[in-house]
Amino acid sequence: MLAATGVDEARCEPPKIKLLDGVPAGDLQDVDVLYEQAGVNGNLSRCLEKLNEMYMASTDKAEMVDLCWRLARANYNLVYSKDSGDQEVCGTQEQKKELAMDALKYARQALEVAPNDYRSHYWCGIAIQAVGEFEGTKYTITHLNDIRSHFEQAVRLNPKDGMCFYCIGMWCFELADLGWMQRQIASTIFATPPQSSFEEALKYFQRAEQVQPEFWNKNALMIAKTYEKLGDYAKAVEWCEYTTRRLVINPDDEAILKQAREVLARVEKKVKK
């Protein structure tokens, strides 16, 4: 439940930002290029290595937000990297857990120095979910409210970023889809466990598509899946077909296309009944 969103799901394009006085523009541009070329040649681990060097060399820790959220992003994405060139740093479960913990550590550092930067909240929410994959269901359920709060703060601070709305949508979808055992665990932790619905999830997925049209194929797929959960199979077919027509640029898009075709085959049968 509420699993971390995975390497490409977590990516949000770094917006145009004012670079720190103590960090040369070229250095940040270099690490962003390595990040965008992740998936081959160990570029993501090289990105993290360079960020660590820049972090250690910095003399002004009070202005580290641009480095810290990038460190959170790089550590997080390495947890899910399948690039053979990255496996030296993320090949074992112990390494993956450490990367997830580091992602949360740096996200919290970013939040300390820049509580009004949406990226600080976004990466805190993402990193808590990642840590939950290693700490277990109880940890994740305990932090459900924290996760949503960070994503809501990110939306408040940047209401034009589709990924932030998508993350709230996923929070709602997976909470609405909880199994009986997980609900029992939640009831032992909270007097009133957090609740959501597929209707609420749909609202956020649709909002994501409105504020940033076609920003990511997975959001369109989740709209289709949510309509399926709601029993509106005609709408589910419509959004599956829409997803299959979207551009396929990378392996993540290919996986989404495959899922969309599988869901389409399933809901088409339900429409015909």
TrEMBL record:
<dbReference type="InterPro" id="IPR049039">
    <property type="entry name" value="RMD1-3_a_helical_rpt"/>
</dbReference>
<dbReference type="Pfam" id="PF21033">
    <property type="entry name" value="RMD1-3"/>
</dbReference>
<keyword id="KW-0677">Repeat</keyword>
<dbReference type="GO" id="GO:0008017">
    <property type="term" value="F:microtubule binding"/>
</dbReference>
<protein>
    <recommendedName>
        <fullName>Regulator of microtubule dynamics protein 1</fullName>
    </recommendedName>
</protein>
<dbReference type="InterPro" id="IPR011990">
    <property type="entry name" value="TPR-like_helical_dom_sf"/>
</dbReference>
<comment type="subunit">
    <text>Interacts with microtubules.</text>
</comment>
<dbReference type="GO" id="GO:0005876">
    <property type="term" value="C:spindle microtubule"/>
</dbReference>
<keyword id="KW-0206">Cytoskeleton</keyword>
<keyword id="KW-0963">Cytoplasm</keyword>
<dbReference type="GO" id="GO:0097431">
    <property type="term" value="C:mitotic spindle pole"/>
</dbReference>
<dbReference type="GO" id="GO:0005739">
    <property type="term" value="C:mitochondrion"/>
</dbReference>
<keyword id="KW-0802">TPR repeat</keyword>
